[in-house]
Specification:
Elements lengths: L2 E3 L3 H8 L4 H8 L3 H8 L7 H10 L4 H8 E3 L7 E2 L15 E6 L2 E8 L4 E2 L8 E16 L2 E5 L4 E5 L4 E17 L3 H16 L1
Antiparallel strand pairs: 1-2, 3-4, 4-5, 5-10, 6-10, 7-8, 7-9, 7-10
Amino acid sequence: MNSVYDFRVMRVLRRQLGLTLHEVARRAGLTYPTVEAVETNKTQPSLKTLDAVAGVLGLSASDLVRLAERRLVQRRKAEPTHDVRTRHKDMGSENCRIAEFDKGKVIRVTAMAGQTVHVMGLHENVHEFCYVLSGVVDLRVEDKTYRLGPDETILFDGLLDHSYSQCEAGEYVTVHIPKDIRVIERLLDSQVESAKTE
């Protein structure tokens, strides 16, 4: 077995919603001891219990299981991308080092001023985070360009055509997270809503 389940994540989720254990139990139609035993990992819950608790937390049972799943420690060494499938129009892959974790990826890019990285062949159906460590980079997503400097971050749909053009020599990290993690989708939705109200 590669996975263990840690349902302490329920505590984080219920506190974000301002709920007590008693409130979760009542709303889920369960007893307090049942919910407390699941949240503290004293027992493995039934599917029926998971579904009831997940509903109170605004999730599906499968999302709650996904959040509770803890892979045993995985360690990877980032490797050059020469073994990774790229497309014929891709460029700049020689500037990338990649570590893969299941469907997620962490990519470190080091580039000189004037270099462009456009490696869509590395992408699956993911959300992409970019964190600039040093230098200045222009990120083009479709028809819009975002200039990012040190310690600036951005989150976007990784399937959209995009490229990074280095304005000043530097380094950045991108993280690819599979879209089937609905927590990230809700984060994106809240960002869209806050942008609409500004």
